[in-house]
Amino acid sequence: MKNRIAALFGIQYPIIQAGMVWCSGWRLASAVSNAGGLGIIGAGSMYPDVLLEHIQKCKKATSKPFAVNVPLLYPNVQEVMDIIVAEGVKVVFTSAGNPASWTGFLKEKGITVVHVIANTKFALKAEACGVDAIVAEGFEAGGHNGREETTTMCLVPMVKAVVKVPVIAAGGIGSGSAMLAAFALGAEGVQIGSAFAVAEESSAHPNFKHRIVQAVEGDTKLTMKKLVPVRLLKNEFAEAVAKAESEGANVEALAHLLGKARAKLGMFEGNMDEGELEIGQVSAMLQDIKPAAVILHSIWSEFLEEKNRLSALEFSDYR
């Protein structure tokens, strides 16, 4: 049976690298695309002129499809979209906002549009807006997250049951076996963030990469649910947020505590104490910093191995 996600993007493997802030520059995106997946440039941490530079460098580094992720609640969205159109980007992933705002504009330009959601309500809304596919991102994911705290294993089949467009699973997926589980639930592709955040080509600071591969179970927590829910590695900043929340801090107090450029401070500049360290629960399973191509091909190989193993299982009828 033809895989709709691979066909939609014109890629070899239905594996998408997430558009993570401060991690997903042109080097990572082009490396993933050259390896047969879909690389994504994360526009959320880029001013328009920086995004333009990354798109142009990515086009020189790969002849294969790549995408740009655009958080719709961020400033300068009009300028970002104009750059995407002018540079001939063929695929856009939108997130953190209303898909009705830009899907029509992008589709009119012949651009394939995918929207990231965390519940069935917005999955249906995104489909009604005309998106070509949906990313169903579960509670395990790093960075900005859904308030419902629905896990990937619950979210994917619920979304699959109500939409006709192909579903891409995200959140807690960093291995071939997890990818196979997502396919068993109805996904036709996977979006992977944390496992690629530690890739050699990731623009994340080395301190952040090393902190990720040192993480163990329970080292991440979903915080700032009154403001914008985000999963972080525990550090001094995360502890300060947890303390403020336990004391009943309101939205204004949390926004003041967050301040400006906190994610850049941690993920890009390497301050492991005071920075915001966005990463998923799967970080506890990551052990090494490797090239993106090695990561992708390892996931695909394990996916096939596990698929064959399950196909070979025999069950006896003990009735």
Secondary-structure arrangement, i.e. CATH architecture of the largest domain: Alpha-Beta Barrel
Report the CATH superfamily of the largest domain.
Aldolase class I
Determine the number of helices (DSSP H or I, runs of at least 4 residues): 14
* Text of the CATH class of the largest domain: Alpha Beta
Low-confidence stretches: none
- N-to-C SSE string, H for helix and E for strand: HEHEHEHEHEHEEHEHEHHEEHHHH
Main-sheet strand order equals 1-9-8-6-5-4-3-2
Shape: globular
Question: How many strands appear in the DSSP assignment?
Answer: 11
> Biggest β-sheet: count, sense, barrel?
8 strands, parallel
Strand content: 5-15%
Number of domains: 2
- The termini sit apart by 34 Å
Return Rg in Å. 19 Å
Mean pLDDT: 94
The helix content, as a percent range, equals 40-55%
Helix/strand/pairing category: alpha/beta
CATH topology of the largest domain: TIM Barrel
Could you provide a short overview of the structure?
It contains 14 helices and eleven strands.
Overall description:
41% of the residues lie in helices and 15% in strands. The mean pLDDT is 94. It has helices at 4-9, 26-34, 48-61, 77-86, 103-108, 120-128, 152-162, 176-184, 194-197, 206-213, 236-246, 251-258, 262-268, 292-311; strands at 15-17, 39-42, 66-71, 91-95, 112-117, 133-137, 143-144, 167-170, 189-192, 220-223, 230-233. The chain folds into two domains: 11-204, TIM Barrel, CATH 3.20.20.70; 216-281, no CATH class. It is globular. The chain contains 14 helices and eleven strands. It is of the alpha/beta class and 319 residues long. It starts with a helix and ends in an 8-residue tail after the last helix.
